[in-house]
Amino acid sequence: MAVSVPASVLDAEAPAGDCCDSGAFALGAVALRAQSNFAASSPPPETTDISAYVNVDKSGVHRLNFFVDNMQCASCIRTVEHGVKALPGVTGARVNMSTRRLVAEWRDDGFRPQEIIQTLYGLGYPAVPFDPAVAEDRTNAADRRLLSCLAVAGFAAANVMLLSVSVWAGAFSDMGAATRDLFHWISACIALPAVVYAGQPFFRSAFRVLRAGHMNMDVPISLAVILAAASSLHQTILGREHAYFDASVTLLFFLLIGRYLDQRARSHARATAAHLLGLTAAGATVIGDDGERFLVPVHQVMPGTLVHVAMGARIPVDGVVESGQSEIDTSLVTGETLPTDVATGAKVFAGTLNLSAPLQVRTAAAGQDTLLGEIVRLVEAAEQSRSRFVRVADRAARIYAPTVHVLALATFLGWWGLTSAGLEHAMMTAIAVLIITCPCALGLAVPAVQVVAAGVLLKAGVLIKNKDGLERLAQIDTIVFDKTGTLTQGRPTLENRDQINARAFQIAAAVATHSSHPLSRATVQAFEESGIARLPSATNISEVPGKGLSGIVEGLTVKLGSPSWCGVAKDTGPDDAKMQLWLCIGDGAPLHLTFSDELRADAASTIEALKQFGYGVSLLSGDRQPVVAMVAQAAGIGSWQAECLPTEKAEQIERLSAEGRKVLMVGDGLNDAPALALGHASISPASGADISQAASDFVFQGDHLIPVLTAVRVARMANGLLKQNIAFAAGYNIIAVPIAVLGLATPLVAAAAMSMSSLIVSLNAFRLRFAARK
Question: Which of 428, 441, 303, 353 is nearest to 727 (CA)?
Fold first, then answer.
């Protein structure tokens, strides 16, 4: 079975079902022509085999992931899912809007998955087997288009406003009609192309909803911009006194700022699953019954298959080590920075990194049935649940938009039919109503606060990654911390240096220099900081993965490593809550080196301050109970849980959410990604794993924990200013609309009032800079 999709299909702005058509409100003919051409196109030829992308689980369910282009809204999701589910044999179809990913399922071995691509292509949604690189390219292209519209609108608004100021000043001086008309024509040459280009995001949106029989805020915005531009051009052609090009482009500029922030938030959401999928091995080296090794796609590996894992490679499956011993980077599962020793019989998980030696693993699960696959599903489920929330502005538009149009039409008919005013006066009054009621202040209320808050937080070392993160952070009542790398520094240090004599310390450092193990590096670092000048020469060094080092130093046999490597019983030695290395020099008694991962210097004070704000604080960690108990006590956290798997952390967050809590998750490990995505808000340190940062709403920098407290304070302040801005925007319309309807405001006055409302909203947002300093 084979299918291919031409590159031109993915690159085209194809129509998308009920609402995501290509085209623009101002360029309707072009849109309709593109729609006609697309509908007339034949399905893509079958030339590329996609059977290798199909995954079959233990129950016989066939599953295939697709990247679907042109999805923009909930109507698109319904169209895609219903279209695929209608195919005979398909048992399920689920769309993730954030990642534009469709998961299709079927049980019949004879079903041809290319039928799904053919169906989606016919509906106007080109699709290919999911590839994170394809999703990234499409996302970047959309961001660049929107940013270019914003740049054009900003350039035009600045220049047209300068010309308008000159005309306004000339009205009170001796500017002649010819000079005024020249300025109007120059404004037209700047504004009209800018309106056509920069207005596309709104024009397209308005065209889509009108075609579907609905309305949103983009409809009155588009109508006001087009009418203002057309009327201004008409006034300029007739040599009249007033033109309103500045209202069109300034309105576009302010609203494009909010639209761009929204697009960036969607881009961030799509990046989360892509980072996770990047940890999945593309293939697995399978060992046959005759001992022959061959490479197969990882999703075709069946349970019970023996897999070879080379040193330095990611383990492609969940399973049990059948032969070999090594060290595994298990941060995916535990979040801990220290490698885990594994040998025959140990469980290993897909996505973890084999550090020291080759392994042979008996497969227990592969593909989407692995722990990594479960983490991906948890993250995507969390993202999908967020994307279902309808924005407040869109809900308000259901009443607001038609009301504005009816009001503008009634104003036009009233002035034209019931008064002696002419057609031009009636039109200008109606345009004034559309302009003065355009929700510019409402659209800027949120972005203005966010921009100021972002600047304040940036100075405090906090980066905002999610557009609505501040609003959700202000609503939290519970904070859950991870341990390693979040409450602690994530860098082990030698703790009992004063208990080790200088000669033994020198010998330990001499051997440790030959290893990259974190505790060996910590030993070498402690030696460098000790000021001891001489480092003995170590020879015949060998390292046994998972055990330790051995060598000859000053004629003596030296061992440095685990208790068993040095012949020490596990129940002797230092507190179990300490990380440790043992040192044997010749026939002497074993010595131990203990290490600790220090708390961030201000962890306890920050936790106490958060408690004083009224937040409930708890700790979830994948580490052992003695270690977690010690850290929780030092940080002043009474509620804690140890040895948590990623799924268990996510379950705890879900349980708290089900109890009505709004949880802030603070974590740095890859294993924290599902919990971070499920939290009402989330924060990660900059030193954390890439995926935890991708799943987080905020990232804080530095070695201190106080940025978390700062982020919470700023979010609460910002939430108050946000409510004030929205209240002002609503009050502005209540006062301004009657003035415009009564004909007491020309389009020029309406544009000034609209701009003034935006300025007041922005200035109110700047109060956050001063409030945050207190």
Answer: 441
